[in-house]
Amino acid sequence: MASGSYMPPAVQRVEIPKATGGTRPLGIPTVADRIAQMVVKNRLEPILEPQFHDDSYGYRPHKSAHDALKLARQRCWRMDWVLDVDIKGFFDNIDHELLIKAVRKHTDCKWVLLYIERWLTASVHMPDGTVQIRDKGTPQGGVISPLLANLFLHYAFDMWMKREFPVVRFERYADDSVPRRHAPGT
């Protein structure tokens, strides 16, 4: 992989039903591509993981949706207001330039950056047989995508919340979060 010779093939787009209705688009990589993505993930995750917000739970080692829900349930009962935030179409709309900028803040490893850029721009075989070229997003279903999504949200949401609303607590699981706080003066 360090030679830069691996070229990721197109991912296969499939639509799976959502429990709430509608479908969720997944980008399914080949087995070889999943292995290559795991190599990069194993290189990058130990660098990124200590940087992430304590209340970020999605796709993280030793954290789960159940952990986030349990903590939110405990904390929310004592609050005056609670928001339920879900970023619609998040994985398909991540800005590549901002994501690569975030990755570069944490590694200068040329082959890691090269492959992440290639995965972000890899074409997608659509269910109707057409091929789609991507200029944004990271396919939900890839091995590296959850780590990249967490990195993007670390800067776009977690750090923004910390800077702009330091008294507002939240739990985040991928693109779903539950910010809340006491009303002023309580």
Automatic annotation (TrEMBL):
GO terms for biological process: defense response to virus. It is an enzyme of class 2 (transferase). Its EC number is 2.7.7.49. Keywords: Antiviral defense, Magnesium, Metal-binding, Nucleotidyltransferase, RNA-directed DNA polymerase, Transferase. Residues 1-186 form the Reverse transcriptase domain. Pfam families: RVT_1 (PF00078). It catalyses: DNA(n) + a 2'-deoxyribonucleoside 5'-triphosphate = DNA(n+1) + diphosphate. One of its GO terms (molecular function) is metal ion binding. Belongs to the bacterial reverse transcriptase family. This is RNA-directed DNA polymerase. The lineage of its organism: Bacteria, Pseudomonadati, Pseudomonadota, Gammaproteobacteria, Enterobacterales.
